[in-house]
Structures are given as C-alpha cells and as structure tokens.
C-alpha cells in the first residue's frame, strides 16, 4: 500500500480550514459593517452640531457625545478632528462627482449644473464649511484629483473642448469658486441662477457646445 503523504490534509482538515476562512470573511464583513455604521453616526453627530455651532469650536468630545460613541471609538477611525472632516469632504466630493459627471456627456450641460447646485443646496451648511472653512484647500485638490480619475470613464461621449486633465482642473476650480461665492452671499440667490453661472463660467469653456 502506498504511504500517505504527511503533508496532504485530511478531508476534515480541508473542511475545517474552509470553515475558518468563511468565518473569518464573515467576521471581516461584520467589522466593516460596524465601522461604516460608526462612521455614519459620527458624521451625523457632527452635522447636527454644525447646524448650531461653528466647526472651529467643536471638539472631539462634542462629536462623540452627539454620536453617542466613546472617545476611543473615534480614535480607532480618525487621528484628529481635521482627519475626520477630510474624510467627510472626500465622501461628499465622491458622491457629487458620481451623481453629476454622467450628465456632462449629454447635450444639455445645464442639467449637470443644476444637479450640482441642488446637491450642494441640500447640504448647504456642510458645504459652506467645506468650501469656505479650513478644508477649502483640501476640497479643491481632492475635487480636481477625483474628477481626473472619474472623467475618463464618465466623459467618453462628452464633446470636450480641452484636454481631459486640463478641462477637469479648470472646470472644477471654476465650479468651486462659483459655489464658494454663492455660499458666502448673505442674500439667497435662486438656484437656477447659480446653475447658470456654473454652466457659463465652468462647464461651457471646457465643453465644446457645438461639436463638428
């Protein structure tokens, strides 16, 4: 009878290893889900605070109290309040780009501009802080970087008048300037007027409105 290779696992061992792998995967997904829920609670806590208190005076203790989590839980995810705000900014930029860039490939760029303005208007307090507060520089740089990353996939059918990287940098910078200006105004401006400004100053120069 041929001798059994001692390195060959028994079927029971294979099953046990597979079970452990599945359990590890489930545990990892569970931890990821808990982490997402915790971060969502922290974000909701901060958003509830900035409706009443300026961001610069909000402390980590304020945030964790509003989110009903411990201080150690906060530090498991973020080293500082600034890192937390940057994470929120990153998520907001990603959501905005994902929702609006596909619209730029249509013939009607005004629809994309209106979508941008509506999105920001619904989160006006947060975007006012992100664009006109301490995160403004981060917002601009990340916005441009993400636009350049997403653009090649989303703008393939768009009639571009500029090279993609230049158009993304120009369009995003101009859009940020218009939005920042709008959010600083003490008197409300109709959203349609803001969208028209974004279209005329930021989008149209980068898109060829009359392709050959």
Write out key terms for the chains shown.
single chain; mainly alpha; Arc Repressor Mutant, subunit A; Tetracycline Repressor, domain 2; 9 helices
What does this entry show, briefly?
The protein has 212 residues and is mainly α. The protein is 71% helix and 0% strand.
Relative helix content: over 70%
CATH topology of the largest domain: Tetracycline Repressor, domain 2
Give the mean pLDDT: 76
Structural class: mainly alpha
Low-pLDDT ranges: 7-14
Based on the coordinates given, report the CATH architecture of the largest domain. Answer: Orthogonal Bundle
Largest sheet: none
Rg from Cα:
24 Å
Q: How many distinct helices?
A: 9
CATH C-level class of the largest domain: Mainly Alpha
Task: State the domain count.
Answer: 2
Outline the structure in words.
Mean pLDDT is about 75; it is low at about 5-15. The chain has about 210 residues and is mostly helical. α5 (about 110-120) crosses α9 and α6 packs across α8. It folds into 2 domains: about 30-80, Arc Repressor Mutant, subunit A (Orthogonal Bundle); about 80-205, Tetracycline Repressor, domain 2 (Orthogonal Bundle), CATH 1.10.357. The protein is about 70% helix and about 0% strand. It is built from 9 helices and no strands.
